[in-house]
Structure formats: structure tokens, C-alpha cells
Specification:
Elements: H1 21-39, E1 41-42, H2 44-48, H3 50-59, E2 66-69, H4 76-81, H5 119-132, E3 139-144, H6 151-160, E4 167-173, H7 184-210, H8 216-229, H9 231-234, H10 238-242, E5 246-252, H11 256-268, E6 272-278, H12 286-290, E7 297-298, H13 317-331, E8 335-339, H14 349-354, E9 359-361, H15 366-378, E10 382-388, H16 389-392, H17 396-404, E11 411-415, H18 432-437, E12 443-445, H19 450-461, E13 467-470, E14 493-496, E15 500-505, H20 509-522, E16 528-531, E17 534-536, H21 540-549, E18 550-560, H22 565-576, E19 582-588, H23 598-605, H24 609-619
Parallel strand pairs: 2-3, 3-4, 4-6, 5-6, 8-9, 8-10, 10-11, 11-13, 12-13, 15-16, 15-18, 18-19
Antiparallel strand pairs: 1-7, 12-17, 14-16
Helix pairs in contact: 3-11, 5-6, 7-8, 13-19, 15-17, 20-24
């Protein structure tokens, strides 16, 4: 890493001569492969934008200029070029470097990101702030073509032309989000790519005509007039031009010199500009180029074979969901599934292959996904919206206003509920109980294990009204199979009956609670263990019974305390005037949870079996 070792501070890249740029890019790719293969992380997206990032760093001056990464999982090269190379040994580990931009980590990370389609809005705000302060600063947003399916992007573009200062939007176009892009914008960008080839040919024709002695110049001018009269049909980028935004491109996203020249020219225009850059996702590594979707986010893997180093022994909840929804698709011909650019991530790929006409990928557009589902429900279909917990919160108003207000039968399959681990604060699914629990008419089920998940899906199909089923990331819990009572609306499940203390656990925390129960049993201590099953509606009868013959009720959930299950239980006892019982709520305190392994985070947050056991013993 001879060249890379000279990058210690922001702007150090400017010391290299142009003939060294390609060698530096090669070293960066090698560095990324060596480290991500050990720690895991986002690989293909970062390999694809090495040259793009280098070109931006060659023309910008940090920290005065501002660079905003949409989503931000592709910011690894940016971190290297701002002197954080040594941090990659702790990438995405507890207490280590984040896999996303973090302003607390470096002032060159201009804006914290993690969800898509936000960068243009943020860039306009920062550019306008510079205008108001009369400060000379270039603001650049790098946004992927996948993010152009998100509505916030268009809200921002609608206001971009009003700026009177430099604001460059770099459209990093690799024809992918996590899955392949879909929809009208994807088709439009395809036309632009074809249009660029057309323009290249047209330029060659004009150049050739100009060289004809005597008559060539006149013919060329006539061709140009004709070209201008039909430019809206033929010239790429007119969508942006019609909004008052200068469009440049597409250009080669792996040609550093061309990008440097283009970026410098765009900045000198001192107005809003979209520069369309074409890149290859996963570039430079055979397996990630061939399988960019698989190598979007990876666990540690063998560089030589591309195969993961961690053996997958158990099915995940996502696997269980995908298999069950396929089975239900045969039984219910009016079942349809919806994903927001996450068919593989949510387990819907097999359903999409078997029932393509009943599967809908709406792109990165969670708000549209939910209201689209509401329309399908009105049309007597049974829509299943499969979505990550942290992404569903983007569609809160649609859940409330378009689904629950009309009492529509929409099923929300909420994946990645609870702690997700190493993706960090933007992806932790620790708010879903809080943002769903207070909506009238919403039913929320939190299955305790893989078997209850399948039964919950069966129950949801026959339900009448909006219903959410939340389950965690990773290997499914196989325990407590014999303790499986039929699902009844609003009924919790008494797993084990004991004395004095009742532990009421929600969803994936039943596994932790069961460890506590077994530990106490070995010590000859018997407590009551309840699987809440229904977060909403509360099983009020069960809570009254527990209060009648227990001294302490302890709730356990992987959600923030505010608006959570435990708070609802405490409020119930207060409303009922039941004051002769102690209620303790074990939940996540009022904080955003950073990155780390789930077991590490549970211990840090004191919601793991060890800490729960201590609280139970204190109560006894």
C-alpha cells in the first residue's frame, strides 16, 4: 500500500500526479477487499465508486466543501481519503468505525445518513445556508439511481432550481439498488444511456460534415437547427433541464480524469447541476461484479472463492416467512405481496418467481407501497407488505391515514424488528411498537419462535383489519415448540406457571426470558413466564390474573421504553387502580443505539438474560 500510506489527512490525495491515480484506485480496492472480507460490510457499492470518490476529493476542499452521501453505505473510500484507514480494523464493531457517514466521527462527514433519497434535500439546505451566510462553499450530493424511486428525491428536485449558488448532484448510476431497479425512472435512465450513444454518433456526423469543403458548414448548421427543434425527444437529461437544472452526462464513472474535468466545469457554473455518472457495482472483484446483489452487504468471506466463512446452521425468520408466504400463495389466490426494493432481503424472491403477477416491487418507495396496498385491499385483495422495521417508519402517515383509518385488511410483515446489529443507529428496529401501538385499529403480533411466526401468518390471512407481525433479524428461535397454544385475538400465552414474579416477554425476547427461567429452575426457584404474543391489543385478563397472585410483574422487550409494551402494561395497571403490585419495565432507554453485534448490544443496554436474571433475583 505504498501510495495509500501517504493518505493521512483530508485533501492528501491532491499530492498525487495524474499518472498515479489509477494505481491509487487499485490500492484502495485491494485494501477494501482485504478488510471487508474479514469484518463484513457493504462491498459491491464501495468497489463501484472508488474512482468517483477520488475524483470528488480531487476537486473539493475539505472540510469547507460539503459532500453528502445518499444512504451512505458507499462512503468507505471517502473514509479512507479523509485519514480513517486505520479504523477499518474495527469497521461496524462495537465502539469501532461506523459503516455509514457520521459527523461525530469526522467533520468531513457532512451529514449523517443511512436511509435513501435524503441527500438532495440536505444538500439544498446546506447550500442555502452558505448563500445566507455569504460563505463560499461547494455542496455535493452523491445519490444512486435506486434512490430516484423515492418520493423525497422529487420533492427536493422540485426546489433545487431555486438555488443561486453551486450545488452539484452526482447521479451514481449502476442500474442497481440492492435488487435491480424497477419502474419508470429506471426506464428513463436506460433511455438516457441509449441517448448518449446517439449523441456520440450525431457528434461524429456533425464533425464529419464540417470537414467537407465549401458546403459542409452550412449542412452542419442545418442539422443542428433540426436537432434543436426535436431535442426534447432525443437529447438525454431533458427531465432535469425542464426543471431548470443543468444536466451533464452520462460520463464514465471509472475515468478519473474525465470526472475531474467535468466536476470542475460543473462547479464553475455556480448553479444547480446534475452530473450523471455511470459506474459498475462491484467493480474490480470477479464475484461482486458477477453477483452484485449477493455482495451488496456481506459477512466475512474467503477472497479466493467468494464464499462466506460463517456457516448458516439455522433458517432465519426471513427464510421462514418466505417459505410460508409461498405456501399461503397457493391457498389464497387473492394474496399479493409488496416490497420496496427488498425482494431478496425480505424473503419474497421465491414468491416473485412462482407468482410474478401477484408480486410488486415498487422501488425505494415505502409510502407508496403502503397506500398501494390500501388500494389493493379496497379491491378485495389481501396485500402483504414485507418491509424492514426501520424503513416502515418512513410510511407512518400512510399506515395511519390510508390503512388503519379505513380498517383495511393489510398485513405488515415487519422484518429486522428489534436490534439489527452492525448497521447501527439508522437501521435498528427498536421503534416499531412505539409508532404502531397508539394507532386505533392496529393489531400487533410478536411471535416467540419460528413456529409461532408461521401460525401468525395463517392467523393474519383470516383476520379482518390491519395487522402487523414483527420478527427479528438472524437465526430463528426453535425452542419452546411444545408450548404452542392456538392463536386467539389479544390472548397471550402462559408458558410456565410459578410464584411471586411473572416475566412477560415480547417476541424475540422470549428466548432471553426462557434462559432466565431455566437458570432459576436449576436453582430451585419457580417463576411465571408469559409470552405476550399480542403487543396490541393487550391481554388485560391475563394481566389481572397475574396481579392477583404475583408480587412483581416484569416486562421485557427489544424496543424503546417510550411508547413501548412495558409502558402500556404500567398504564393499564394505573387505569385499573391496581396499586398493590410492583411493575418493572426492561426496555431500551431513551437513546439511539450504535453498531455492534446483537448480543453485545443487549448486554450494553442491560436487556440480556444476565441482567434480567439479576433484576428477577432482586425482585424475589
Amino acid at each position: 500500500m505504498e501510495l495509500l500510506d501517504n493518505i493521512k489527512e483530508p485533501n492528501d490525495i491532491k499530492q498525487f500526479e495524474e499518472d498515479q491515480w489509477d494505481a491509487l484506485a487499485s490500492e484502495i480496492r485491494k485494501f477494501l477487499l482485504q478488510h471487508i472480507s474479514k469484518t463484513g460490510g457493504h462491498l459491491a457499492s464501495n468497489l463501484g465508486c472508488v474512482e468517483l470518490t477520488m475524483a470528488l476529493h480531487l476537486v473539493l476542499n475539505f472540510p469547507n466543501d460539503k459532500l453528502i452521501w445518499d444512504v451512505g453505505h458507499q462512503s468507505y473510500t471517502h473514509k479512507i481519503l479523509t485519514g480513517r484507514k486505520d479504523g477499518f480494523d474495527t469497521l461496524r464493531q462495537l465502539g469501532g468505525m461506523s459503516g455509514f457517514p457520521k459527523s461525530a466521527e469526522s467533520e468531513t462527514d457532512a451529514f449523517d445518513t443511512g436511509h435513501s433519497s435524503t441527500s438532495i434535500s440536505a444538500a439544498i439546505g446546506m447550500a442555502k445556508a452558505s448563500e445566507l451566510k455569504r460563505k463560499k462553499s461547494t455542496v455535493v450530493a452523491v445519490v444512486g439511481d435506486g434512490s430516484f424511486t423515492g418520493g423525497l428525491t422529487y420533492e427536493a428536485l422540485n426546489n433545487l432550481a431555486r438555488l443561486k449558488s453551486s450545488c452539484m448532484i452526482v447521479l451514481n448510476d449502476n442500474d442497481m439498488s440492492i435488487d435491480e431497479n424497477v419502474g419508470g425512472m429506471s426506464n428513463y435512465l436506460n433511455k438516457i444511456r441509449v441517448g448518449q450513444a446517439y449523441n456520440d454518433v450525431k457528434y461524429g456526423v456533425e464533425k464529419g460534415l464540417m470537414q467537407i469543403p465549401g458546403i459542409g458548414e452550412g449542412i452542419a448548421k442545418a442539422v443542428k437547427r433540426g436537432k434543436d427543434s426535436i431535442k426534447e425527444l432525443l437529447v438525454p437529461g431533458m427531465f432535469f433541464e425542464d426543471l431548470g437544472i443543468t444536466y451533464i452526462g452520462p460520463i464514465d464513472g471509472h475515468n478519473i480524469g474525465q470526472m475531474v474535468d467535468t466536476f470542475e466545469s460543473a462547479i464553475r457554473l455556480n448553479r444547480p447541476v446534475v452530473v450523471h455518472v455511470k459506474t459498475i457495482k462491484g467493480k474490480g472483484y470477479y464475484y461482486s461484479e458477477k453477483y452484485p446483489k449477493h455482495f451488496h452487504g456481506v459477512e466475512p468471506f474467503d477472497l479466493k472463492t467468494g464464499k462466506g466463512l460463517q456457516k448458516k446452521n439455522k433458517m432465519t425468520y426471513t427464510d421462514i416467512f418466505g417459505r410460508k408466504i409461498l405456501e399461503l400463495g397457493e391457498k389464497y389466490p387473492n394474496l399479493v405481496t409488496i416490497t420496496a426494493a427488498m425482494a431478496s432481503g425480505t424473503g419474497l424472491e421465491k414468491f416473485a418467481n412462482v407468482y410474478p403477477s401477484r408480486f410488486f416491487d415498487v422501488g425505494i418507495a415505502e409510502q407508496h407501497a403502503v397506500t398501494f396496498a390500501a388500494g389493493l385491499a379496497k379491491g378485495e385483495m389481501i396485500p402483504v407488505v414485507a418491509v424492514y422495521s426501520s424503513f416502515l417508519q418512513r410510511a407512518y402517515d400512510q399506515v395511519l391515514h390510508d390503512v388503519c383509518l379505513q380498517k383495511l385488511h393489510v398485513i405488515f410483515a415487519i422484518d429486522r424488528s428489534g436490534l439489527v446489529g452492525q448497521d447501527g443507529s439508522t437501521h435498528q428496529g427498536i421503534f416499531d411498537i412505539s409508532y404502531l401501538n397508539h394507532i386505533p385499529g392496529m393489531t400487533i403480533i410478536a411471535p416467540k419462535n419460528r413456529y409461532e411466526l408461521t401460525k401468525s401468518l395463517e392467523y393474519a390471512m383470516e383476520f379482518d383489519g390491519p395487522i402487523a407481525i414483527k420478527y427479528s433479524r438472524g437465526a430463528a428461535f426453535y425452542g419452546l415448540r411444545d408450548q404452542m397454544e392456538p392463536i386467539e385475538q389479544g390472548k397471550s400465552e402462559l408458558l410456565f406457571s410459578g410464584k411471586k414474579v411473572a416475566l412477560v416477554a415480547v417476541g424475540n425476547m422470549v428466548e432471553e426470558a426462557y434462559e432466565v427461567y431455566k437458570s432459576l429452575e436449576e436453582q430451585g426457584i419457580s417463576i411465571t413466564l408469559v409470552n405476550a404474543r399480542f403487543v396490541k391489543p393487550l391481554d388485560e385478563n391475563m394481566l389481572r390474573e397475574l396481579a392477583g397472585d404475583h408480587q412483581t410483574i416484569i416486562t421485557l422487550e427489544e424496543n424503546v421504553y417510550q411508547g413501548g409494551f412495558g409502558q402500556a402494561v404500567s398504564a393499564f395497571y394505573m387505569r385499573e387502580g391496581i396499586t398493590d403490585i410492583c411493575v418493572k419495565n426492561i426496555a431500551i432507554e431513551d437513546t439511539f443505539v450504535e453498531h455492534g453485534k446483537v448480543e453485545e448490544l443487549r448486554k450494553l443496554l442491560k436487556i440480556d438474560a444476565e441482567h434480567v436474571l439479576q433484576i428477577v433475583k432482586e425482585s424475589l
